[in-house]
Design goal:
The protein is an alpha/beta fold. It has one domain: Rossmann fold (3-Layer(aba) Sandwich), CATH 3.40.50.720. Helix content is 35%, strand content 14%. It is built from eleven helices and ten strands. Strand 4, helix 4 and strand 5 form a beta-alpha-beta unit. Helix 1 crosses helix 8 and helix 4 packs parallel to helix 6. The radius of gyration is 20 Å and the shape is globular. The N and C termini lie far apart (42 Å). The C terminus is likely disordered. Bound molecules: NADP nicotinamide-adenine-dinucleotide phosphate. NADP nicotinamide-adenine-dinucleotide phosphate (NAP) binds next to helix 1, strand 5 and strand 7.
Length: 338
């Protein structure tokens, strides 16, 4: 077992954050967990090991100084508090915002907060930081045949010009984090995840996430696709992501960008697998078009972390096993024949 550390986990009530808190406690570390609503965060005390080793702190990204208290005494910080916003400050969908407004509301706040939190981390002698980011920052145009996370970095200027502000947020926050880490002497690891699927650890993980769509399918509620998309999607288990984040906190050699996803499947294949667990009526229709090929990744850096990544079919099995069926039971079995 690694030496006991104190790990600050920012965004501890989120999907990635809660899995990281659970894994950090399982590995014997002390956890300083930040949340905007401490009352809600009390649910984290249900994790084994929380009594005596978990402390809750209120912190808001809009007020980076609020992270000073949880960072004091921490050996490492895991930043999982920058979810991609779906709308601007006035509630309009990002696609409806003027470019300047979209940049100010979506990209700039995460960039500034990321930089300032890491500046505070440097001031409080935090040695290592882990930024939970996204494969959106590893999507150059045109895409190479095989993606490599060190070589293939999205162009912030291109993302901005194309109006891809949600993706630009990830690229910009990573740049800001890297600059602050370099200046402050912090070892920074950036973990690039894609669509996260796993059992909800806290009730609100089934609200507003992709998980809410997937859970709805079980009840016969069509999800977010009318038609099976012809593209592909990569999937991450937040449990695997937590394993990678903790490896990064514990291991001095882990530094830089790492893919943290299991694989890329066509949506056709994903829905074929989902069809085993949900009624046919909830599924999107197929249009018969040949699907585009899945993304191919160079997983050599990912695999160097020593984390066993969950296969996508197993990820979906575990998720659907955790969702109550309309009759109130959970259904670990596939509901339709092969
Ligand atoms: N979920 C996915 O499918 C997915 C896919 C790819 C990449 N990622 C990346 O993984 C990271 C974590 O995502 P997630 O899905 O775990 O997010 P999430 O479940 O929405 O959780 C976000 C966490 O951040 C906190 N938070 C939000 N706004 C904050 C603010 N202004 N100040 C302080 N804390 C704030 C939330 O706290 P409250 O409880 O106070 O709201 C919550 O704990 C993000 O960078 C995301 O882009 C996620």
């Amino acid at each position: 077992m690694a030496e006991q550390k104190t790990i600050c986990i920012a965004g501890a009530t989120g999907l990635a954050g809660a899995y990281a808190v659970r894994e950090a406690l399982r590995r014997g570390h002390n956890v300083h967990a930040t949340a905007r609503d401490i009352n809600r965060a009390h649910r984290l005390y249900e994790f084994p090991g929380a009594a005596g080793r978990l402390r809750l702190f209120e912190a808001h990204a809009e007020r980076p100084e609020s992270f000073a208290a949880p960072l004091v005494g921490a050996d490492a910080v895991i930043l999982a508090c920058f979810p991609t916003p779906r709308s601007g400050r006035d509630g309009r969908a990002i696609a409806e915002l003027e470019p300047g407004r979209a940049w100010r509301d979506v990209v700039a706040p995460a960039k500034i907060a990321c930089r300032e939190i890491l500046q505070i981390a440097a001031r409080t002698d935090v040695a290592a930081a882990v930024l939970c980011s996204s494969t959106a920052s590893a999507a150059p145009v045109p895409p190479p045949p095989v993606l490599n996370e060190l070589r293939d970095v999205s162009s912030l200027a291109d993302q901005r010009a194309a109006g891809k502000y949600m993706q630009a947020q990830k690229t910009a926050m990573e740049q800001a984090a890297q600059e602050a880490a370099d200046r402050g002497g912090i070892r920074l690891t950036i973990l690039l995840s894609s669509m996260m699927v796993a059992p909800a650890l806290l009730p609100w993980h089934l609200e507003g996430h992709v998980l809410s769509f997937l859970a709805g399918l079980v009840r016969g509620i069509p999800g977010w696709h009318q038609q099976v998309p012809d593209g592909a999607m990569s999937l991450t288990s937040p449990e695997d992501l937590a394993g990678c984040a903790l490896q990064a906190c514990e291991t001095a050699q882990v530094v830089g960008r790492y893919f943290t996803l299991s694989d890329s499947w066509t949506w056709a294949r994903i829905y074929q697998e989902i069809a085993h667990y949900v009624p046919q009526s909830a599924l999107p229709v197929t249009n018969g078009a040949a699907p585009k090929l899945p993304t191919v990744y160079d997983f050599s850096r990912r695999d160097s972390l020593g984390v066993a990544f969950t296969p996508i079919d197993e990820m979906l099995r575990r998720f659907f096993a955790s969702v109550p069926t309309p009759s109130g039971e959970t259904s670990p079995q596939r509901v339709s024949a092969e």
